[in-house]
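Tutorial handout. Part one gives the primary structure; part two gives the three-dimensional structure as tokens.
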Amino acid sequence: MKEVKLEEAAYQFEAKMSLRQAIPLGLQHVCAMFVGNLTPLLIITSACGIAGGEFADLQVTLLQSAMFVAGIVTLVQLFTIGPVGGAVPIIMGTSSGFIGVFNSVVGTMGGGVLAYGAIMGASIIGGIFESVLGFFLKPLRRFFPPVVTGTVVLSIGLSLISVGINSFGGGNKAKDFGSVENLLLALFVLVVILFFKHWTTGFLSSSAILIGILAGYVVAFIMGLVLPTTGVTADGVEFTKAWVLNWNKVAQASWFAVPKLMPVKVVFDARAILPVLIMFIVTAVETVGDISGVMEGGMNREPSDKELSGGVICDGLGSTFAALFGVLPNTSFSQNVGLVAMTKVVNRMALASGAIFLILCGLIPKLGALVSIMPQAVLGGAAVMMFSSIVVSGIQLITKEKMTPRHLTIVSVALGVGYGMGANSGILAQAPQVFQLICGESGIVPAAFVAILLNVLLPKNDMAEFLSLHTIFDEKNDNLSVSSTKAMVGHCLGAAGSIEAVFSIKALTENMVPPTVGYSDEDIENLKEKAGKIDFRPNEPKEKKLDTVMSNSFAFGGNNASIIFSKNAGNIELPKKEKVYITGLGVVAPCGNGVENYVEKFNADVKPESTSVASAVGSADYAACGLKMAFYRKLDKFSQ
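Part two.
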């Protein structure tokens, strides 16, 4: 097979890319989101009773507008208009997150065009509300460190896996859901994608999703020629199988149509507005998660404040714009986050070509119809892999920082309680309706809420460390610089003390305070608040004339000490203290583990051999000071 090399520009957001490669890569995104973009409209128009009969033309108009609006808002997200748009590789589309709230609004208002008009009115106001939130996102960014956004992205991926596997079986509402034909068709698409993804390189590898979907179309067409296209239910009702291509739909679609502005009368009703406003707060959190996921998965970095803010503003104003065309809120599409994470293609031209195709689908209904007849099994063959890629992006975000017990608690509780609650909504049957609407439709919302809450409430270790520094050095912090080289090199299986000593001597000889690496922008802002006058050095070194350096936590398997290094011997004056507190004593020796062993060696005042390391202070020294042994710290196996 001849190799078609993928342009390097495909992996760069702003680089110019040839249309012959950009267009197919953009079509992948359209295929990934096309059905999901129209499904919410089909559900809500059916709930309102405007899906057929005298309203049949209205529903077709709304579906046409959904494609047109998605393309326009995606272009704004990619290229920005002033502060609107994050310039991030995100595809926008009709949100399914509002389905539960909108169904409730329909029930409250009795359905019909009036209820749909109230949904549009609430969406207009809610979109403006979310855009205002976007302008104030920077001061709120501190509530979204990687452990929180990663948990949200992970929840998004987990919630979509069930969607993907439902499509894999042909769609759970299909009469032949899970049939052998559907499963084999989906499996064929998945195998084709895997082959082109991993057994080819360049352009073919990055276009694996599109190739798999096109192959699925071909196989579905052949199946229609050689296999029965209809089946009979247990009740004797004949039905068309889910994998059959409905070419009549393409034939009946018109060649050109202009989307209609305000096809239904907009109604502003508080019964619709209040619950929808709450959902717009939730969708802002989801958008932060989507943008974080796509930047981590596609560009191996966290998004900036400007990118997040612009993305959320576009989310809000895009939803308001959509409502003017009778379309449900337009937000970032999580399905496409998985595609970016899988292919690493983030080029703006490639995504823009997909957006332009969506616009053309809105103007040329035949194009839209051709994509809309895609069998669910074909989509599912691609979706199971794409959606799982979002889970991996969430894990990557969470593990960007060291997994401390605090981080483990946040992720575990958010997924266990938050996502578990949303995934099993029956547990909320007795809860207030508003709470059910917010948390019961998706595990994303409660997981995000729990993660944010725990991140605010759980104490951080650095807070305790800075408190200790402030206590030790009183108010004399103007000339004190602090950094941690452990963050740079790790504990190195017990060699942390040696490494700290080397960095301390290096700092003295080079007059350079080493950096503490690995901190995000949010962490730095938080640490600066806690440091106060202390000169904390995150992520970059600092030239400074140094006469004295103290190496703290000079640790050998639990034997902790603070050692002072100075250019001038004997110039260190220790303050006189009335009391000295000994909190622990550890001994490391090659003669074995166990508390009893250490107690025995300590009482015998055993001197360290040349091959061992031990505390320089013996029992006699402690006894001379009138001190008694408090406790021993057990040597862990990694510190030997």
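Part three, for discussion. The first strand starts at residue 92 and ends at 94. Residues 19-48 form the longest helix (30 residues).
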